Amino acid sequence: MISGKSTKKVLLKSGRIIDPFSKKTFNGDILIENGKISKIGESISSKGKDYKIVDCKGLVVTHGFCDMHVHFREPGREDKETLESGSFAALGGGFTQVCTMANTNPIIDSPEHIHYIVSKSSKLPIDIFPIGSVSKGQKGEDLTEMLLMQKNGAIAFSDDGIPIQNAQFMKLALTYAKMLDVPIMNHAEDIYLRNNGVMNASSTSNNLGLKGNSSLGEAVMVYRDLLLADSLSSKLHLLHISAKETVELLKKFKKKNKPISAEVSPHHLYFIDEDINEFNTNLKVAPPVRSRGDRKALIEGIKSGLIDCIATDHAPHTIEDKETTFNDAEFGMIGLESCFGVVNKVLVKENGMSLKSLIEKLTVNPRKIMNLEADLFSVGCKAQITIFDPNEKWVFENKHILSKSSNSPFIGEDLVGRVKYVISKNQFFTL
Amino acid sequence: MLKSKHLIGLEHFPVSDLNKIIDTSFKFKDILQTESRKAILLKGKTIVNMFFENSTRTKISFSLAEKRLGADSINFSASTSSVKKGETLKDTVQNIESMKIDGAVIRHSHPGSALKLTEYIDGAVINAGDGSHEHPTQAILDMVTLKEKFGKIKGLKVGIVGDILNSRVARSNIFALKKLGAKVVVCGPSTLLPSDAKKLGINITYNLNEVLNWCDAVIALRIQLERMHLGRIPSKREYHSEFGLTFERISKLKKDIVIMHPGPMNRGVEIDSRVADSDNAVILDQVLNGVASRMSILYLLLGEGNIKL
Known about the structure:
Number of strands of chain B: 9
Number of helices of chain A: 14
Structural class of chain A: alpha/beta
Radius of gyration of chain B: 19 Å
Oligomer: heterodimer
Number of helices of chain B: 12
Largest sheet of chain B: 5 strands, parallel
Order of helices and strands of chain B: HEHEHEHEHEHEHEHEHHEHH
Largest sheet of chain A: 9 strands, mixed
Helix content of chain A: 25-40%
Number of strands of chain A: 19
Distance between the termini of chain A: 10 Å
Helix content of chain B: 25-40%
Largest interface: A-B, 17 and 15 residues
Structural class of chain B: alpha/beta
Strand order of the largest sheet of chain B: 7-6-5-8-9
Distance between the termini of chain B: 13 Å
């Protein structure tokens, strides 16, 4: 657990300020008073003032990150994560806003459930926006009360974890959500083509004797969803895309400037199927990490802007759920705390993406998709600020994990770029 | 007399015929309010009412209209007929036709069944509702009600709320209103709205308050609760909260609007009791106008046309 300090008067001094909204970059200072940005400029004098001064020399000062795809397991599996423990994991990764998926127990499929998440989150140190389920009980049959759920704070709708297999139901969901102007986020994997696969279908899966999940399962359903959303002009968000075919499809459909968006998770940018050579269950994830070629296509996709944002799909599981055979282990991995070090290393350091562009994928882009305020560096705004060292090399270890669970394949990996401070909801956190 | 031989739908129905039916309806309404309530204008005419689908008010309304006009009418309902024994529509109808009839009123769950009937019989066919296609007599009685209330239909602003996509009442009303020069906005959940609004010449909105603030009259449609299980609406609660003519919504309006419903109503779902029973509601006028309109339709289609009213 980390603890926050007051932001009554904090002066961030001499940082490299990157504002992904106005697209301005400059060296300067930001003054925060009572949790709000009160001044931003090249130099703010602290003479005679009782500011808490934070030396940001060599550090980047930018918007707090926003993760539109996390699983906080509350209600139902508080042994894996709670809204509170998840908030600290988020802060640990520089995230000041997250959107929580609905596949808890019970499933978040009614206005009352949404209300529960909203009220339980109100005092936590980050903003939590619940995503409601598309179908009652995530059964893919009956629509949830989306209009009433939105009024209670639902930010979008997703049956994530379970694909919406019925195309007519998907069409109706996209149609219904049009009234709300929010995206439907489908976990696109055709359940029949997925064929109970536990890892990417490849020579590695053949060698390991593990059942393969073909990227066609994702591509077929993504194609269907894109066709539907395109014809209905509905908002569609593609979750955790993993396959090169999906990137190709995005290329085809995004040209028309329709409200179609896509996210990629850090692990799909970092790992490939060959990394599962020792049955490491922490690499068991849905959709699976795929081939070298898929990874390359995803990196190109996010660099070119076809893929809009990075989302961790933070999925905590207990040791018991992971310390078992590959077939029996649960799907998913945590990802908040390691996110920046991973994507900065892969995209900026190894693949030549600009840091500014990466920041957009973690801040303004997800906020725009979710209809959240994206202009965070205006005077008077509630301070949501992440300060990181873009060059620090570090090894990700258990001690860096603030989540209740520690199912991360990044443990022991060399990462580049590390979040140092976060300001969120009137509090200043040092990591 | 009318140009048309049958009344199948309003989409292609001549506007002159439509106006004539509406205007004549008022004369029959006057007659209905006299002591005798009768005008024996169809003496000797035989009309068969074929109801292949359940109906209460439409069936009674037609029967009554026929009786008031002095016609001989016979009723036929699918549940007690040889249709149950597997007889086809064609055979059923031709058997009835061979008994010499002058007109047939048909209600059937299949779109196009009224039109089909015109191939099998010589008399006039009146569509009393064919699936999700049309319900022209309902629309005509609604036009009569609107004209009675406002004096004219041209320029009227009418909102229709509910399942526009599957409703034969909505379709026929849209055709009638557009023909007569009214402005139409339809409102409902996006899953129950048609995608061809532009072609129909109507506007679409999801915001009921907007419609109510704009319109002179609103027609609430019956929401079929089985739609809930087809993924089109999530619950009665959400429908009522977002698309119901609630007392709260109506009482907040700055002007009076006329409230209509073709019945049967789901009180507490698409319309609150306090709204349905309020002074602004003309739902029971619609019922009486239904008899008058159907008398007008039957008279103009089956009558000799030489009797002055």
